[in-house]
Design goal:
alpha+beta; 376 residues; 24% strand; single chain
Length: 376
């Protein structure tokens, strides 16, 4: 590769899907062209959302992308799950302007994955340099790559970005053939508690797992009601539009798993998952009827069932949630990387991250002792 050229493009849809996915790969659906283009086409990003797509593309001699950053100009810090509002307040009290900032991410998606989409691995430094150039040229306060795949953290660190550690709870498949195999690995008291929860959750209900063409307008209408209920309680308004869901279903087909709970044939709750090459990703959940433990059943236990049936290595059930510990989900580190050009601001954030990292690692060690697995 003798020369590289970097440029901004007005959206994911401006890049042919084959070229994008040649860089993104197919293992993680959230950085694929189908997912990100569905966000654009549905109006979930762009417009007044505060997420303006500005992918950064590094091209080789043949004019085809060798590296892409899924970048967004952000006018706020919503929908990121790595919280920097305190940084924004401090910078603006000091007379700076924090927004807009540059976000390298899968919008609304706290799922670790590649943030440097590389057809040629050697192009990583050039792509990071291009991101930094965009920040400088547009006089932005900062750039933030959130939920970075662990394998890519060293590339950001080598470029001098600040590294932040967080915690999620993932279920790990230790070669289980059935859910009972998983339960056998737990302490007796925890095993009994899960069985009681599952029995109570599904009493009088039918649980259905739907993929691909099995998910029609009726099912998406039901799930939209569930999603709106959860979104209005958590965020004030849902991030995603109604049209996003059928677009996602049409684009990803069998990689979309919708788990529904029905009473007398009527859906009352649902959990939406995407299927990766080695993981099941739980994304959205909602219900229109309160049923004890049904959230745990659909989002955690049914996800484990689905992962075991497909031979997947793990379940990633979203951000936060210490209540997942008792359900067999264990703490794992997540990572983000932050480019802050102003030296004084960078120094203050670096000091904060040093203190935060020590607290996060101490908490992880403590939480690791609370897992329900049998000792020894």
């Amino acid at each position: 590769m003798t020369s590289l050229t970097a440029r901004l493009v007005p959206g994911v849809a401006a890049i042919p899907a084959k070229q994008w996915d040649a860089c993104a790969g197919i293992a993680n659906p959230f950085v694929g062209h189908a997912f990100l283009a569905a966000l654009e086409e549905s109006g979930s990003v762009g417009g007044r959302s505060g997420w303006q797509p500005v992918p950064i593309v590094v091209e080789g001699d043949d004019g085809a992308p060798v590296a892409i950053a899924p970048a967004y100009a952000k006018g706020h810090s919503q929908g990121e799950y790595v919280f920097d509002q305190g940084w924004a307040d401090a910078w603006e009290r000091a007379g700076g302007r924090y927004y807009p900032k540059l976000q390298i991410a899968a919008p609304f998606t706290p799922v670790p994955g590649p943030r440097l989409l590389l057809r040629d691995e050697s192009a990583a430094p050039a792509l990071i340099a291009a991101i930094e150039a965009v920040v400088a040229q547009h006089e932005l306060s900062s750039a933030h790559a959130t939920f970075v795949a662990p394998s890519q953290v060293p590339a950001f660190a080598a470029a001098g970005w600040l590294i932040r550690e967080g915690t999620q709870f993932h279920w790990q498949n230790d070669g289980y053939a059935t859910f009972d195999d998983f339960l056998a690995a737990l302490a007796s008291r925890k095993r009994k508690a899960i069985r009681k929860e599952r029995a109570a959750a599904v009493e009088g209900l039918t649980i259905r797992h739907l993929t691909g063409a099995e998910i029609g307008t009726r099912e998406w209408d039901a799930f939209w009601r569930f999603y709106q209920d959860t979104g209005s309680r958590k965020w004030g308004r849902p991030y995603l539009t109604r049209s996003f869901f059928p677009l996602l279903g049409a684009a990803l087909g069998e990689r979309v798993l919708l788990i529904l709970a029905e009473r007398d044939g009527v859906p009352i709750a649902g959990a939406l998952n995407l299927i990766g090459d080695d993981a099941l990703y739980g994304r959205y959940w909602g219900a229109v009827e309160e049923v004890p433990f049904l959230h745990f059943e659909l989002c955690y236990y049914q996800a484990i069932d689905a992962a075991i049936a497909r031979g997947l290595a793990r379940v990633e059930a979203g951000a936060q949630g210490e209540h997942k510990l008792a359900r067999g989900y264990t703490p794992v580190s997540t990572w983000s990387a932050h480019h802050i050009p102003d030296e004084n601001f960078r120094r203050a954030v670096s000091d904060f991250l040093d203190q935060e990292r020590a607290a996060v690692e101490g908490e992880q060690a403590f939480l690791g002792e609370l897992t329900p697995f049998r000792r020894g």
